[in-house]
């Protein structure tokens, strides 16, 4: 698939990342099919996109007409075949679990045209292993956005062991067309570049609170005001989703070793469904 031939982008998953990626693709002028497994999930994703586009229009970052046109380009669907049947590129943003993603690719492979490119928004998992459940591993790579996609500039474009240079070039051009800055990650390694740095930082922040070395406010004021991050480390964990951070850590712990042992405080947040902004409560309250 050449970059110039891309017209339709399917986004699988309408959660925090999926709906944000669908919004970015629609703003760049692509026809977008956003798919999730339940009507309520796609509706929620669609409502979030509408909120975000209106917010951007309110702040004069785009006109109301541009916001409305972008929303019109998005079709929200549950049926897989309808979502991917005419897609030129599929960007998958389903939960960060190897088995779930593999099942999705096995299913999607049956309905997607032979030349469709597959890009996974995985935060940490092996691109090579995921690509091997498809019949097109050379047309498969990572395309990792950051939360919130509409505001964050960087996209990691990650090679798998089988990915062709043509696929990487096309996906990088697509990222640029989305208005983003792609960085190529030339080795398929857990957490790639950003999460290899950021997720341990959020985990260490949890350990400091867990071990009673510092309060949440003390940790976050240090990371925000002294270290110059745009958000405190625990505020960021809430932004990313505590479940997402935990899944990435569990995988890094399994593949890279002890240094990535998830903090029990983070595990407890996930167990209590205090997942951060998206559930209204995490390390902070958002109601
Ligand atoms: N769409 C539209 N508007 C949005 C929005 C969205 N998706 N998300 C937030 N906003 C709005 C807010 O509602 C708020 O509006 P009001 O001012 O009306 O209340 C406004 O944006 C806040 O924007 P500001 O420009 O005032 O705030 P800011 O300059 O602090 O920017 C931010 C917000 C871009 C999120 C910034 O805090 C930031 O960069 N935070 C770090 C985010 C980050 O590092 N993300 C990566 C996490 S790692 C990851 O995602 C990878 C992974 O795999 C785990």
From TrEMBL:
Transmembrane portions of the chain: none
Official protein name in the record: enoyl-CoA hydratase
From-to range in the entire protein, with total length: 1 to 287 of 654
Stretches assigned to the 3-hydroxyacyl-CoA dehydrogenase NAD binding domain: 8-188
The 3-hydroxyacyl-CoA dehydrogenase C-terminal domain, residue ranges: 191-286
Organism classification: Archaea, Methanobacteriati, Methanobacteriota, Stenosarchaea group, Halobacteria
Similarity comment: family membership: In the central section; belongs to the 3-hydroxyacyl-CoA dehydrogenase family.
């Amino acid at each position: 698939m050449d970059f110039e031939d891309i017209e339709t982008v399917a986004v699988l998953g309408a959660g925090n990342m999926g709906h944000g990626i669908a919004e970015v693709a629609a703003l760049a002028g692509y026809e977008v099919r956003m798919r999730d497994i339940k009507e309520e999930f796609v509706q929620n994703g669609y409502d979030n996109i509408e909120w975000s586009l209106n917010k951007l229009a309110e702040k004069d970052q785009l006109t109301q007409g541009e916001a409305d046109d972008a929303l019109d380009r998005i079709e929200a669907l549950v049926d897989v075949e309808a979502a991917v049947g005419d897609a030129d590129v599929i960007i998958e943003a389903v939960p960060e679990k190897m088995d779930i993603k593999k099942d999705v690719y096995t299913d999607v492979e049956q309905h997607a045209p032979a030349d469709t490119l597959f890009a996974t928004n995985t935060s940490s998992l092996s691109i090579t292993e995921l690509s091997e459940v498809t019949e097109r591993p050379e047309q498969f790579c990572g395309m990792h956005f950051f939360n919130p996609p509409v505001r964050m500039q960087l996209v990691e474009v990650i090679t798998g062991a089988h990915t062709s240079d043509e696929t990487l070039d096309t996906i990088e051009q697509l990222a640029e067309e989305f208005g983003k800055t792609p960085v190529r990650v030339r080795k398929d390694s857990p957490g790639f570049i950003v999460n290899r740095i950021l997720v341990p930082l959020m985990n260490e922040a949890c350990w400091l609170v867990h071990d009673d070395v510092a309060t949440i406010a003390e940790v976050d004021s240090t990371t925000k005001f002294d270290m110059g991050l745009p958000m405190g480390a625990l505020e960021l964990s809430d932004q990313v989703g505590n479940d997402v951070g935990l899944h990435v850590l569990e995988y890094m712990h399994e593949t890279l070793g002890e240094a990535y042992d998830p903090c029990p405080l983070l595990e407890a947040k996930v167990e209590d469904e205090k997942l951060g902004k998206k559930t209204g409560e995490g390390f902070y309250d958002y109601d």
